[in-house]
Amino acid sequence: MAATGSAAGPRVERLVTSGTFSLDGGTWDVDNNVWLVGDDREVLVIDAAHDADAIAAAVGDRRVVAVVCTHAHDDHIDAAPALADRTGAPILLHPADTELWKRTHPDRAPDGELADGQRLSVAGTELTVLHTPGHCHGAVSLYAPDLGTVFTGDTLFQGGPGATGRTFSDFPTIVESIRTKLLTLPGETVARTGHGDATTIGAEAPHLDEWIARGH
Ligand SMILES: [Fe+2]
What CA–CA distance (Å, rounded) separates 34 from 187? Predict the structure, then answer.
């Protein structure tokens, strides 16, 4: 293939998909953010939620380097096997979320493991895996310093921590993850979340004590 004179550098694209989240006997309607990090040639998909067709359409003819799961709640992984099958990309999950994964996909294991400090490369840039448990045991965030952003899954939202009221969750653990792994990033870092609008580390950091006091 001929080289293009002005290949666009790595960038972030957002796709919102809709479906349900089920756990502990309840089911809720949810909209999820699916993040594509890459360029015109290859992308990494963060959280293949709900709609493999829509994600594949957003990917287009680009190579999918990996399907990365921020955690294994069903709304974040329900389309991962279908997307992996049609793209040939490996599914990567932190092994501490294996039990949760099996509840949704008992017959299809992830293809690889995520670990704290691991680096994922795509389109000439890198994302560092930060193990940020609390929302569930295997929750991770992905820090992309070149892009000035961190993908926080359901660990940190605009306005506070992710939910910790259900099975496999723990509030003191998520607070410790946020305090030590996320609020230590540069304040201008954009936090791109698993649901809803983005925020910045600097906008959230002053509120840690309020969250601890209120207990969620
Ligand atoms: Fe979640």
Answer: 24
* CA 62 – CA 43 distance, rounded (Å): 7
Interval 32-63: pLDDT, tens: 999 999 999 999 999 999 999 999 999 999 99
CA–centroid distance, residue 42 to ligand 1 (Å): 27
Per-chain mean pLDDT for the chain: 96
Span from the CA of 7 to the centroid of ligand 1 (angstroms): 35
The average pLDDT across 185-200 equals 98
Q: What is the C-alpha to C-alpha distance for residues 54 and 103, in angstroms, rounded to an integer?
A: 24
Q: What is the DSSP string of 135-178?
A: SSTT-EEEEEGGGTEEEEETTEETTEEPP-SSTT--HHHHHHHI
- Tell me the CA–centroid distance for residue 86 and ligand 1, in Å: 25
Centre of ligand 1 to C-alpha 2, Å, is 43
Cα 139 to averaged position of ligand 1 atoms, centre (Å): 9
